[in-house]
TrEMBL record:
Keyword Nucleotide-binding attributed: yes
EC number: 2.7.2.16
Name of the protein in its database record: 2-phosphoglycerate kinase
PROSITE patterns: ATP_CONE
Gene symbol of the encoding locus: pgk2
Entry-linked Pfam families: ATP-cone (PF03477)
Domain of life (superkingdom): Archaea
Alphabetical list of InterPro entries matching this protein: 2PKG (IPR020872), ATP-cone_dom (IPR005144), P-loop_NTPase (IPR027417)
Catalytic activity line of the entry: (2R)-2-phosphoglycerate + ATP = (2R)-2,3-bisphosphoglycerate + ADP + H(+)
UniProt keywords, alphabetically: ATP-binding, Kinase, Nucleotide-binding, Transferase
GO molecular function per UniProt: ATP binding; kinase activity; phosphotransferase activity, carboxyl group as acceptor
Keyword ATP-binding: yes
Stated family: Belongs to the 2-phosphoglycerate kinase family.
ATP-cone domain segment(s): 5-92
């Protein structure tokens, strides 16, 4: 790489060479098609070169991109771009993607992370592994099962739907770990995406649901056949055995319905995951709306966002 000829982008605490790829990615997150986003990133790079700019502050670059988008009649994209740059650069945001096994939480979480440039995605399955190391099987036997088999080790006196009770008991300890990670991210100012089947809306403490920096989205697949097909697809490329998920499919569907029901109860948006690109767009729209509220709560106008140091 010829650093001498590169344009340097200067942030508050670091410098890096101008990257058309990074700029294009933030433009796609704001709603532009990748091909157009890349062209605009290229145009801006050329513009800076023509002006013989060697070093540019991030806030200057942000301003230029914003006005360039407006000049090309991408007003809505410009607004979203500004909002995203502001929030991701300066405020921690925790995105929770819940959903029953196989509806696609990890796939969608990674797509959103790459579109937004959030470097950290944590699966609740990993938190479950950590919890298994610190809590004995004797103390919480459900933790050692899967979400859909935990009912097998319930104590006999549990009332109600035993499959759902098992799932709840299985998820409780995991949720304690999830809440710990959220606390840490909010305190440290780090953004993170957490995904998995253990994110039960009615069991997560209300203080997280009410926090403007926490955005919770529930994924679902309404069509049973489509949901089943996802396990066949996964079985071909991973070591997770399709037969196991098919054997417990009815319970997994029950968990899916329960997740949707509890999400609705708590006012959490439910997104159907049929086509990846559409699911991601729907999720990004939901997240953007939440960010607008967050920025409005802080009383920031567009002018303030343009002026804020990056
Ligand atoms: N919109 C989609 N279209 C087609 N295939 C998809 C879509 N979303 C996910 N998949 C595929 O479906 C399978 C299941 O998805 P994934 O592993 O993301 O599920 P999950 O909800 O994370 O499950 P678990 O909680 O069991 O880990 C994977 O093979 C994935 O590539
Ligand atoms: O418990 C579950 O539903 C799944 C979640 O990924 O995990 P496993 O099937 O590996 O136990």
């Amino acid at each position: 790489m010829d650093l001498q000829n590169d344009i340097i982008v200067r942030g508050k605490s670091y410098e890096m060479p101008f990257s058309k790829g990074i700029l294009a990615r933030s433009l796609t997150a704001a709603g532009l098609k990748p091909s157009i986003a890349y062209r605009i990133a290229w145009d801006i790079y050329e513009m800076l070169k023509k002006e013989n700019i060697k070093v540019i502050d991030k806030s200057d670059l942000r301003r230029r991109v914003y006005y360039y988008l407006i000049s090309k009649n991408y007003d809505e994209v410009a607004k979203k771009y500004l909002l995203w740059r502001m929030v991701l650069g300066r405020r921690p945001i925790v995105i929770l993607i819940g959903g029953a096994s196989g509806v696609g939480t990890s796939t969608i979480a990674f797509e959103i992370a790459s579109r937004l440039g959030i470097p950290s995605v944590i699966g609740t399955d990993s938190i479950r592994e950590v919890m298994r190391k610190v809590i004995s099987r004797e103390l919480i036997p459900t933790l050692y099962e899967s979400s859909y088999t935990a009912w097998k080790v319930l104590r006999e006196n549990e009332d109600g739907n035993i499959y759902i009770k098992g799932f709840e008991r299985h998820s409780e300890a995991v949720l304690t770990g999830v809440e710990g990670v959220i606390d840490r991210c909010l305190i440290e100012g780090q953004s993170v995406i957490m995904e998995g089947t253990h994110l039960i809306p009615t069991l997560l403490k209300d203080k997280y649901l009410e926090n403007p920096n926490v955005v919770f989205i529930m994924l679902t697949i309404y069509d049973e056949k489509l949901h089943k097909m996802r396990f066949y697809a996964r079985g071909r490329v991973s070591s997770r055995p399709t037969e196991r998920y098919l054997k417990y499919f009815k319970i997994i569907r029950m968990i899916n319905d329960y997740m949707v029901e509890t999400a609705k109860k708590k006012g959490i948006p439910v997104v159907e995951n049929i086509k990846i690109s559409k699911t991601v767009d729907n999720c990004l729209n939901i997240i953007t709306e939440r960010l607008k509220t967050m920025v409005e709560l802080e009383g920031l106008s567009e002018e303030d966002m343009l002026e804020e140091e990056a």
